[in-house]
Structures are given as structure tokens and as C-alpha cells.
């Protein structure tokens, strides 16, 4: 969750409501964030901190020595059920609670290697075998794991290493016979099979496909912008008194062209929406799977073989390298604060991590900048004196009386370059004047409570790796004295995130044991700050699309963009998903502006009518129905009329029937699902428009069912009908349309392979 847990929010909102009006007025009218922070933090009492501490204790982020055995046994149950993925995650949970160089951690690593072997992840399996051995895997169990190692090497075609592993295992068995006679015979038989495989199998050289290599190379920017890091030379940074900073095209841009490829300045994994388990006899340890169990907490790479932090059970990484990088940059401070950070929410965590990463830039300038804010105002003057052209300079039409308007751009360095750095992050707008007083109070007290946990020991760690002319010993007292400055910085970042946070998304797939269909859905994986992506202004019908690979955001043109045209991104409320009134309300409440994009202007001047994907049709002549409470046929020669409530009730009944069909589909009862869906299709035609979203959903479900039966022709027919609905609702260049076309291509091209993707 972005903001603190509901209990802490309710507690602080009540505290705010009980404050004297004079104090509320002082905080509400404070001119600077420094004043908001100082006035609010002075109200944080010891009983408030105790309440927050009790909430934080609900999160089990420490290492529990009794947990590894529990998770190993639960993992063994999954393993026996042949749910190897579930087993791997539970073994990982056991690893995260184990101390280094213990039998617990070695057993969990070894068991996980077995699960990974069955999942075909042989390289990762080998890494877990090495980890188990490094942490002192019991000698009595070594033969079985060494055999697994040899099997992996044979499968991977590393035959020389496989032969050496087999030889080592045989030598060990001869020198130290630790198996029973029956165990020895089984092992000898397996070794014999492996030797035959080594003799028969040709050397397999692993190569990275040339086409795939080229695909990755094509994702790089063709020519990087000299003015804006991580951006293409096809865009230019401009400024306007009303728009603020924005990007425009310096040339005609074709659809698909890569405009921005930016790594997050900071990112924090989203822990998910599942509440913490309340401690009890049967729920002490959590077997639920969250993003934090299968994604690296630094690079966001998906992995079933996480490497845990030595100090806590929460932070997990894809490799020792990511673990060390995270520790050096920020986790050495965050490690002891895990439960508190989960309680205070992702925004507070991002705010802390931003300031921790800022230490590795020029800390003297950072503190100077923060002091400047406290003395002056919330938005500092830019360091750069560079003047940047407005969009009018490109076309010449905006020139008035021969003069060109030039404006300094905040966030640029002394050389006029805008980069992915703390200076750019700091200059993102917090919109202090637009934030509600109680929200600023919530953020300020949350940050204040976090600052109080950053004790002297933590502050000493802050000096590690800092670039500064001051000796580290001299900096520790200074940092202690300037803790309120870092508090103001964190408050600034926490407020910035309401408008500048970027949801890092990924596609997650879920499989069904009963049928061959794989469902996929887009989920929010993490929250990040991307200074360059944040330069893009909003449109409800944007000309770009944003996607993510781990922590890297890529912005591509989704349509042709003319020279001088603004590069636009959608902040969430898209015209294909929301009506104009709902979009305007959301943008006003979260981003503090009234959208005036062409989509909003066109929709506001259009006669009031519901979107086509929600429209009802006449049961007699199939013309669209119109009206409010009582709908009448749009065909002048038809007198059909029906109440909206009646049609809504029909739609609800139909949705229930479709839900039942989808359940049958998930359970592999395909014939029954098709029979029910065909009935739903007939019912829908009697009162829904051909472009109604429910019609599209029924067609998509039918396509799934026929694909599972291997009837590709019928599957393609229904999917093509679904495509028509998707195009009407989301547009021909939408991500949704691309996903549907990909599914159709799979049916046409790979008809013999039933492993199709649907959502």
C-alpha cells in the first residue's frame, strides 16, 4: 500500500481532529515544508510511537529459528504433490529465516535445488547446490545432491564437468561408505545411467539466439540526447509557465520509436495488499506467496531462488551481487526498520530510500540545497543558469515581435543537462499548497516517527561511501544535528509521490492443472521514481506507451508524432476506460489539474450518451437504445421502450451465467462451458450492442474453450469477434489490442501447440 496502514491513518486523523484550531491553522497555512515538518513533529508523543510500534510488530520481518523446519515440512508436502513451484517458494521462506552456516539453511537450499531441478531450472539448481555445500550441508546427505549436480551438468551439455562430478562422487563413496546396501545399489544404477548419457550425448554449446540478441540491442536508444539523459535525440526539454516542464518532438517520429529508456532513480517492491497475519497458534508463519517472495528486492527480477539478507527475513535478492549492492546503498539502514517501513507504507519507504541514495552524490550540495529550502521556500532555484527554448521556438509561430521566450529549467545541472539524479528528483513538484492539511500532517508525523528510529548508529552508517570533502568522523555529528533537514527532504519526497510515483508493472501468469490455458494479467510490482519519465505531461489519449523490464522504463511512440508536437503519457485515467467526468475528477483529486486534452474537449462537447461498450440495443430492430431511466429505440420507426433497471437486471443475470461458465472453463469442463457460453451469446444478442464489453468477454471465453479443445478455426473466429469489441473500447493502437492480436497470431501460427495465452 502507498500510504500507511489504515490503523495508523485513522489514529493520526483522529489526533488531527482533536488539535486546537489554532494549531491546525498554523500547520495548514505554513509557507514551507520545513514549517509543516517542525510544527507537526513537535506533536509526536511517546504514546504515538508506542502505538506505531505495536502495529509494526504484526509484520514478522526478523529471523525466527523455529520457522525453517516449518517451511521445509510445508515445502515437502508441496513437493510430494508435484507442486514444485509452490515447494520452491516455501523452501525460500525457510532460507530467509535461517542463519548463515547452519544446517537449516543448507537443508532448505538443497531441498529447493530438488524443486528447481524438476522445474527444469538447471543452472539455478546448480547454484543452490553450491549454496547448500557452502553452508555445511550434512555429509550423510551429500551423495544424493552430488548425483543431482551431475544430472544437471549432463542435461546442460557440460559433459566434462559432469564426468568429474561422477568421478568425485564415486571416490567419496569408496573413501567414506555412508549408504546402506540398498541405497548404494540404487545410486550405482543411477550413476550407470548417467555415464551412458555422457557417452551418448554430444557436446551442446549454449548460444544466445542471434535474433534475441538483436531484439535486446534494438531496445537501446539509437542516439542519446545530449540535454536529457536516458532520452532519445528525437525529443527536447521545454518549459512553460502553465505547463511546467515537458517534452516535444524535434523531428517526425514513427510509431514504435523508442523515446526514453530510463532506470529508476529509486524503486521499492510493493509488498502486496495482503494484511499481516495476527499472531496465533495456527498462523504464526505465513505460507501465502507475495511479490516479495519471488522478486528481487533490488532489481525486481523474477526468481524462485532468492538469496536472503543475513539480518532480516523480509529482504530477498536474486543474487549475492544484488544483495551486496542493496546493503551498501540503503539496506544497511533499512534492515532493522522492516516492520516500521511496511507499516508506514511504500511512499514513506521510497522517501527514505531516496535520501539514502542521495548520500552517494555530492552530500555537501545536497545538504546545502535542503538548507536553502528551509530558509527560503519549498521549490529551490535551479542550479543551472541554462535557458531552454519553448515549443514555439521550433515552429516560429510562437514568436511575438521577433522575440523568443526562454525559461530556466529546474533540475538541470550546472551544464544545463537534466539527468537521472537526486537534483532532478528534488525538483519534482510536491504541490504543497494543494495537499490537504490532514494529509500533510499524516506524512509529516510518519516521517518524524521514522526519523526518530534513525539513531546515532544508523547515522554513522550514513557516512559510508559518501562523496564529500569533509572527514567522515566530522560528518557524523553534523548529520546528527541535521536530522531534521533529512526529515524535511523525506516529507518533500513523500508529497511528491502523489503526482510523480510511477507504478512499475509486470505480466504475471497463472496456470490451471485442469486445462492447458494460461491466464495472464498485469500487476503492480513496485513503485519507482523516474525523473525523465516524470517530464511527460498527461493526455487521456496519449501518443506514447510505457512498459517495464525490471527497474527500467521504456517509453515508445504509439502513433506518429509530428515535429514540434508534445510527447504525452497517460497518468491512468484513459478515455477508453473512463468517462470524461470520472477522469476529470480523478485527475483533479490526485494531480491537481483540470485536463484539457483533445479527448476531454471532444467528449465534453459530444451529446450525452453512454459509451458503445456499455450500450443496450433494441430487442426488435437491434438499433441502439437511448435515454435515462426509460430507454427508447433510436430507430424513429420503432416504438420499443424499456426501463434501464430492467436491462441492468438482465445484464447482471448474464454476468452471473458467464461467471459460472468461466469457472467450468478453469476446471477443465470444456463442453459444459461452451454450451453455457453459447446460451449467454444468444441472450446477449437480444439486448446488448454488438460492441458491448460483455459480448467481447463471451467471445473471448469461447475462443479459450475451443483452443483448449484444439479446434483452432472456431477459436480464431470467436477471437476475431472479441477483437472488434476491444478495438472499439481501447483503440487500434492500444496495449489491449496488441495483446489480443498476439493471441490471434498464436492460434494461426502455432495451432498445434495448445499452450495459448489468454486473459
UniProtKB/TrEMBL annotation:
One of its GO terms (biological process) is methylation. GO terms for molecular function: histone deacetylase binding; methyltransferase activity; zinc ion binding. Residues 233-572 form the SET domain. Signal peptide: none annotated. Pfam families: SET, zf-MYND. GO terms for cellular component: cytoplasm; nucleus. PROSITE patterns: SET (PS50280), ZF_MYND_1 (PS01360), ZF_MYND_2 (PS50865). It comes from the Eukaryota. Keywords: Cytoplasm, Metal-binding, Methyltransferase, Nucleus, S-adenosyl-L-methionine, Transferase, Zinc, Zinc-finger. InterPro entries: SET-MYND_domain_protein, SET_dom, SET_dom_sf, SMYD4_SET, TPR-like_helical_dom_sf, Znf_MYND. It catalyses: L-lysyl-[protein] + S-adenosyl-L-methionine = N(6)-methyl-L-lysyl-[protein] + S-adenosyl-L-homocysteine + H(+). It is found in: Cytoplasm; Nucleus. Residues 296-335 form the MYND-type domain. Gene3D superfamilies: 6.10.140.2220, SET domain (2.170.270.10), Tetratricopeptide repeat domain (1.25.40.10). PANTHER family: SET AND MYND DOMAIN-CONTAINING PROTEIN 4. Protein-lysine N-methyltransferase. Monomethylates PRMT5, modulating its transcriptional activity. May also act as a histone methyltransferase. Plays a critical role in cardiac development. Acts as a key epigenetic regulator of gene expression during cardiac development via its dual activities as a methyltransferase and negative regulator of HDAC1. This is Protein-lysine N-methyltransferase SMYD4. It comes from Hipposideros armiger (Great Himalayan leaf-nosed bat).
